[in-house]
What we know:
- The complex is a heterodimer of chains A (about 170) and B (about 120).
- Chain A has about 170 residues and is an alpha+beta fold.
- Chain A has a single domain, classed as Roll (Nuclear Transport Factor 2, Chain: A).
- Chain A has helices at about 5-30, 35, 145-150, and strands at about 45-50, 50-55, 65-80, 80-95, 95-110, 115-125, 130, 135, 160.
- In chain A, a hairpin with a 2-residue loop joins strand 1 (about 45-50) and strand 2.
- Chain A starts with a helix and ends with a strand.
- Mean pLDDT of chain A is about 75; it is low at about 125-140.
- Chain B has a domain at about 45-120: Hotdog Thioesterase (Thiol Ester Dehydrase, Chain A, Roll), CATH 3.10.129.
- Chain B has 3 helices and 5 strands; from the N terminus they run αααβββββ.
- In chain B, strands 1, 2, 3, 4 and 5 form a 5-stranded antiparallel β-sheet that branches.
- Chain B is elongated.
- Chains A and B meet through strand 7, helix 3 and strand 9 of A and helix 3, strand 1, strand 2 and strand 4 of B.
- Strand 9 (about 160) of chain A pairs antiparallel with strand 2 of chain B, so a sheet runs across the interface.
Amino acid sequence: MTYQQQFVLDGLAGAQRFSISRAVHRLYSAGDLAGWIATFRHAGASLTRAGQTYTDLLGAFDGGNGQRLVTVDHEITVDGVEASQQCVVLLFRDGELRTTGTYRDSLIYERGGWYFTSRELESDVVAGECAAGVSADISYEFAFGTYEDAARMVGTRTEPRYAAAR
Amino acid sequence: MPSFAKRQWGGIVAPPALLIGLLMPPPWVPTGEPPTASIAVRVPLPGTAIINASNDVEFLSPVLEGDRLSVIEKVVSVSPEKTTRLGAGHFIETLETYYRGDGSPVAISRNTLFRYTPATTS
């Protein structure tokens, strides 16, 4: 591929990736599960949130319900048909900022467009309280959502955590 | 006496209550990796405060020196919103099953956590 061809492809790729980022966040905010899943590649995609990796994206979706997902400060690197993206996440609920964090994304160009192969959301730590009226020395990385979001987690099991892994 | 413990239980027995602490997610990891919070904290809900409401542990067999232990957490239930003196929130019931290296369970813990938004005091 010539330098000029690569230059044009990179420019086109950048524009398309921004387009997919905007689309996925609009779909998330609108609670459009099918549309949101369609921004990921057909097979083998994953989403990691709060230390838990979802390969079944149906169970990973927690959008809608008055939430608005905004990303800023995108940093994009292209390597042929693969790309990586890092951006800052701001999640609002009913107009109030509820959580912030960072998305680390991997994308692939196929079927005439860019698709997420993996998304990793690392939330910024929110200081919590561990008991009534007592300030905690420990900060918890809370996951925020609605009761309906929480109800979908009933029955979820973690992978084994080992004592020796500490 | 180690010989008595070996004859009686198969080895030196660890204090049972230590089991919970040993497998609690650490708030800080020496390698600098981000800590993994307990699944109860990762249930998406409103509220920035938690308080443990109840804990019930059944110890099935002794934990012995040299056992390699693991725990699997499960979300059992999430209550609709309840209003308490602390504030409005949800009760999250989790089940933690503790295993030794051979896959046999050594303890089962049922825990209920209250995740809430602190009530504003006037």
